[in-house]
Amino acid sequence: MDAKKLGLMAVLAGVAVVVVPWLLPTGPSTELDAARFLESGSLFLGAAIVFGGGLLTALTPCVYPLIPITVSVFGARKAESRGKAMLLTTSYIVGMGVVFSGLGILAAKTGQAFGSMLGHPAVVTGLAVFLLLLASSMFGAFELALPSGLQTRLNSVGGAGVAGAFLMGSVSGFLAAPCTGPVLTGLLAFVAKTANVTLGASLLFIYALGIGVPFFILGVSTVRLPKSGVWMEWVKSVLGIMLVALAFSYLKDASPWARDVVKSAGAELGRLPGAALAGMLAVVGVLLGAVHRSFKEGARDFSFKAFGVALVVAALMVRGGALDAGPVGELWVRLGLAERPRAPTWAWDHVMPAKKATFSREAFDQVLAQAKAEGRPVLIDFFADWCAACKELDRETYPAPQVISQSSEGQFLTIKIDATNSDDALDALMERFGVEGLPTVAFVSQTGTELKRPRVTGFLEPVPFAEQMRKARCTEGASC
Fold first, then answer.
1. Which of 30, 381, 446, 478 has the fewest CB neighbours in a 10 Å radius?
2. Which H/E stretch holds residue 379?
3. Whether pLDDT at 111 is above 70
4. Rg (CA), the chain
5. Which residues, other chains included, contact 322 with Cβ-Cβ below 8 Å and sequence gap of 6+?
6. How far is it, in rounded angstroms, from Cα 210 to Cα 53?
7. 57 pLDDT exceeds 90?
8. Is-contact 210 55, C-beta < 8 A?
9. Contact in structure between 278 and 18 (CB atoms under 8 Å)
């Protein structure tokens, strides 16, 4: 490959690793609470919000990388006409819809929460293995195809591509789990309360249709792609790298030690230095051959490409850790190259349970009793390490001056509840506060009353979040 083109590709990759994570949304925000409208009888408006929530979910880091992959594998480049492309993408969306409808029926029958079910380490590990297999296909280890006997039978009726797209869609629905946010969690809680199987299946199918919009648009609009060539192998390498990084991200969230390693690395480097290091790793990885070399061209190319892919994946992991880190890294403070910020910062009074400990209801009630005795309102944040919107609250909302000021003025006692690994005591606490999905921020008044309103479910910008805090401390005639 020409050195100038390779250098340009490497620089663009580095810039993308630094900039793109800041631009990607983490999921639907707290204003998209479909259950609130459904419970009030506004079924049409609630269904519209469910559809919009699915559309926003499709643009999150959990789903967005799959859009070009699935279209390239099952989609329009193999189609002979726009009608065939529409049929394939529709089959994909229907496959996804069938899975979500099944989850709706499960919620109606059992009340099982979608986020906690798909946050289970065994399920997450299974999804990661699937992503790694798909990445191996992108790198040319094998071609994705149905068994030959079934493929021959389907070809006789023109259905091989349709069946493949349907199966791909049925698996891809599970990959949205960490980005479901308040729309789907609130929706499933509503379905569980109504125990209406038909309503649950229908609403979840609408949600899947929302996720499927980008797939449908891309699949139908790219009927004629340029002839395949070396550029196609480069594209497949990029997609493979994205899949490997996503798989490792899933494994990280399922493994406490891996989460701690990534989080510690981010804290040591800081937000901007971590982003810069990630960009440099990506540049070096691309220069070594993460994209333009092939695993099939001998031992030398295999080694360079493997090392390059490893560096780019490491860059993405470092970037993820830095994204949630503070502005100043601990490493630079220890080396005397930087100082900690002197402006007011957000700090949690209590984090429960402590690392490698189980949740204690007695300790929690003791903290609430202390706050009541001191006449302080309480802010309780329920989060999990696999919850993308939880991280966005930590990154964007809590450090904001408006929120810090409101916390200081109101003398809030702040508690962070880690629901990553649930147990009976923790489940009982979440039921006590009516937590239906993560993140949820609940409040307790100065007199010790657990407030049903105000409440935050999902990500909320700093200014409206500070307003919710003001409402919480101004309840029951308290002076503000």
1. 478
2. strand 378-383
3. no
4. 24
5. 266, 269, 270, 271, 272, 273, 274, 275, 277, 278
6. 7
7. no
8. yes
9. yes
